[in-house]
């Protein structure tokens, strides 16, 4: 069949009409494709309850572990986070109902700009100048400081609002621990990044079964904008993080949240904590769905290294840029290049 970027991947996968795998879905130019897998590594686990209500010794240890996870991994799992498992299940149900809508109804939510508050689409990407279409359908919408949501299915808005509020609270608690782990006041990141008006973007990603998963890609290797991205998946693995030149499969423990450190944690920490390089691979027999909630500063915040982390021995490794401008640059001008390269002072940091 003729395949185009305007056709959802879900519709293509369900058609089953493949005489040969189309070249525009073949992805081979990931700069990290040659990285070997490392199945033995396991992702750090952070118990949020110890951070929020543990003893002084427990809190001190979990803050140390959190800092180590940010520095050595850039990804970790959070348990005892307080977001009800039933609510997470309802979120997945709503997203599945959305992706099951007729094509014409989903296309009502197509957007054209990165700062459109609701955007549905298939993955013509900004990594390869539109030459490759990734094996993913998505719906993205802003949930903070202003809340938007598709009006289909009928309960999508209420459930996604409740979910995003719960995640927002988890993020603010985690960032208190990250602040202390950097030697800053617990409220430093919250205040400096104006998290009361912080930008939250919820993305539901559907990766249908693919007849040639070794040729296609869900999302290629990249880093996330913002501070922390909270991710959950529907029990089907597919997230991989790059660690010491090897791809590590992220296999969350039950009822945990996966957290990626983003570009603006790297900037704020003056490079001590690195933005995690990760990707999404796909399966041949089963659909994978993930919910990613990106949590950033307010759109008008200019993000620079914390002044307390800059001195004669550690000069500022990044120039300041307003978060909104960073997002626009990321989605409109780049092609496979990290946006961090545009704010990094190359003479200071590699």
Automatic annotation (TrEMBL):
Name recorded for this polypeptide: Fe2OG dioxygenase domain-containing protein
Keyword Oxidoreductase recorded: yes
PANTHER family named among the record's database cross-references: OXOGLUTARATE/IRON-DEPENDENT DIOXYGENASE (PTHR47991)
Coiled-coil features, chain-numbered ranges: none
Signal peptide annotation: none
The keyword Ribosomal protein belongs to this UniProt entry's keyword annotation: no
Family: Belongs to the iron/ascorbate-dependent oxidoreductase family.
One term of GO molecular function: metal ion binding
Lineage: Eukaryota, Viridiplantae, Streptophyta, Embryophyta, Tracheophyta
Pfam families noted in UniProt: 2OG-FeII_Oxy, DIOX_N
Gene3D superfamilies on file: B-lactam Antibiotic, Isopenicillin N Synthase, Chain
Superkingdom of the organism of origin: Eukaryota
Keywords assigned by UniProt, alphabetized: Iron, Metal-binding, Oxidoreductase
Start and end residues of each Fe2OG dioxygenase domain: 197-297
InterPro entries (alphabetical): DIOX_N (IPR026992), IPNS-like_FE2OG_OXY (IPR044861), IPNS-like_sf (IPR027443), Oxoglu/Fe-dep_dioxygenase_dom (IPR005123), Plant_2OG-oxidoreductases (IPR050295)
């Amino acid at each position: 069949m003729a395949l185009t970027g305007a056709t959802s991947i879900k519709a293509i996968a369900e058609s089953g009409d493949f005489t040969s795998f189309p070249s525009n879905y073949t992805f081979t130019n990931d700069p990290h494709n040659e990285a070997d897998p490392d199945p033995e590594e396991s992702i750090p686990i952070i118990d949020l309850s110890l951070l929020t209500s543990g003893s002084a010794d427990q809190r001190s240890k979990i803050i140390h572990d959190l800092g180590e996870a940010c520095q050595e991994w850039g990804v970790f799992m959070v348990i005892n986070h307080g977001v009800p498992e039933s609510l997470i299940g309802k979120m997945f149900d709503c997203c599945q109902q959305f992706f099951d809508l007729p094509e014409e109804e989903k296309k009502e939510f197509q957007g054209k700009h990165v700062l459109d508050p609701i955007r549905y689409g298939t993955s013509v990407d900004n990594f390869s100048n539109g030459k490759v279409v990734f094996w993913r359908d998505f719906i993205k919408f802003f949930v903070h400081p202003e809340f938007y949501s598709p009006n289909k299915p009928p309960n999508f808005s209420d459930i996604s609002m409740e979910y995003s509020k719960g995640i927002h609270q988890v993020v603010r608690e985690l960032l208190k621990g990250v602040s202390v782990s950097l030697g800053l006041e617990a409220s430093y990141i919250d205040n400096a990044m104006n998290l009361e008006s912080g930008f939250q973007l919820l993305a539901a990603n559907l990766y249908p079964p693919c007849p040639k998963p070794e040729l296609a890609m869900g999302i290629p290797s990249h880093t996330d904008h913002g501070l922390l991205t909270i991710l959950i998946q529907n029990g089907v693995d597919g997230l991989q993080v790059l660690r010491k030149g090897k791809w590590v499969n992220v296999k969350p423990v039950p009822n945990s949240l996966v957290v990626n450190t983003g570009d603006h944690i790297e900037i704020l920490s003056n490079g001590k904590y690195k933005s995690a390089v990760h990707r999404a691979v796909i399966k041949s027999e089963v659909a994978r769905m993930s919910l990613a909630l990106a949590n950033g500063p307010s759109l008008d915040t200019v993000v620079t290294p914390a002044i307390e982390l800059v001195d004669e021995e550690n000069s500022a490794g990044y120039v300041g840029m307003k978060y909104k401008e960073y997002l626009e640059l990321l989605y409109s001008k780049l092609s496979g290049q990290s946006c961090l390269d545009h704010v990094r002072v190359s003479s200071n940091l590699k």
